[in-house]
Design goal:
alpha/beta, six-stranded mixed sheet, two-stranded antiparallel sheet, 5 helices
Length: 171
């Protein structure tokens, strides 16, 4: 399974399982954190971030990122790792994170999960200040007319747009 395939599954999972009405994947902004997938449940004002890892080396190197060094000042009220089966054990997952495995069938299996009812979750600070760059970037891209694909959670990149413009000019 490739990283792109995991990211695609993460976007679907955020929409269907977590009921996120807004989902972005691999959105590059001025923030130094580029979530593989992030979604917002507007009805309960909740954000969910998913990091997809396809190798042990990638998972281990993740520990040095700001999201782990300063978790209170990073996006995602709920944070997940999505990995192929057996790549990571629950004991290796940092505190405050959850683990899910993408099965070969394309289904996602929760390995660790919140114990209790959804409405009994501890109240976490809204990390909206850290999430604003993603939303502003999306609005700016929309304002520029850059197409968004809701199935993948991605805007066309500026490079793709530039290439399309150059192709139109040569026609």
């Amino acid at each position: 399974m490739t990283h792109s395939e995991l990211v695609h599954l993460a976007a679907i999972w955020l929409r269907k399982h977590h009921r996120c009405s807004v989902v972005f994947t691999e959105m590059v902004t001025r923030s130094d954190i580029i979530p593989d997938a992030i979604g917002w449940r507007v009805d309960v004002r909740w954000s969910i971030l998913i990091e997809c890892k396809i190798s042990r080396a990638d998972f281990c190197s993740d520990r040095s990122k700001r999201i782990h060094l300063d978790p209170e000042n990073a996006p995602g009220q709920e944070r997940w790792y999505l990995v192929p089966p057996g790549l990571v054990t629950p004991e290796e997952v940092p505190e405050g994170w959850f683990l899910a495995e993408a099965q070969p069938s394309g289904k996602i299996k929760k390995i660790t999960k919140f114990k209790g009812k959804e409405w009994e979750r501890p109240v976490l600070p809204m990390r909206s200040v850290q999430e604003v760059p993603y939303l502003l970037s999306a609005l700016r891209r929309h304002d520029l007319g850059i197409p968004f694909n809701p199935k993948t959670g991605r805007f066309r990149t500026f490079k793709e747009e530039k290439t399309l413009l150059l192709l139109k000019e040569t026609e």
